[in-house]
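Example record

One chain of 221 residues, shown exactly as stored in the release files.
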Amino acid sequence: MRMKREQKGVVDFFYQMSTVCKLWRAVMAMYPKYWTKITIFVDQDPTPLADIEEWLHNSQNLPITVRVGRRDSFEVDAEEGRRTRAVVDILKPHICRCTEIIFQVIHGSSLPTVSFDLQDISSILTELHLECQHDDGAPAIEAPTHGHGELRGITSRPKPNAITLHGHTILDVLKYDRKMFNENSGNIKFKNFDASNYHEEDIIFSLFVFLSAQLAFDSED
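Predicted structure tokens for this chain:
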């Protein structure tokens, strides 16, 4: 799954500008607005983590958009999940500032969990797209054991214009963020889900939640 060319062009422009010399970098760092559109690559030539931390710092407290993806489209990348997890750990303190969050990766297990990684999501979020090419199940590292915190769902009540959920993120939202699903069911698109990767109980429970929401939505019409 390859990031759009124009997204790469934007990040390359500002990145190259800031690497001309120390003076240019220092001058650009004084203007937070230049650092509010953040594009991160998790392919075999990943964006350095130090750069991501610097961009987030330079954006100060302004709302930001975050896009995480690849410039290539390999069928398998055993290291993608590790790279993505490192990025998510850096992003977590800034999730409350994100007005747009897009992940476009190969493996579903590389996607963040909504109930843990994105639980402090912004109430002014406009877009949430968690997409993968292949659903290979949930992350190998269970979210509650990675760092501090617990599964408690999102703390705000955003109403994005569009939501796309792939793989384990579908079950995650249906199980832990039922209210978010009910309030935004008309804007959510599901795709790339392989039921064989999950427990039957989770499938049955999530199907019940989904059907209940659809029945409630239909009754309102």
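Notes: The beta strands are 37-41, 64-69, 98-107, 127-134, 162-166, 188-191.
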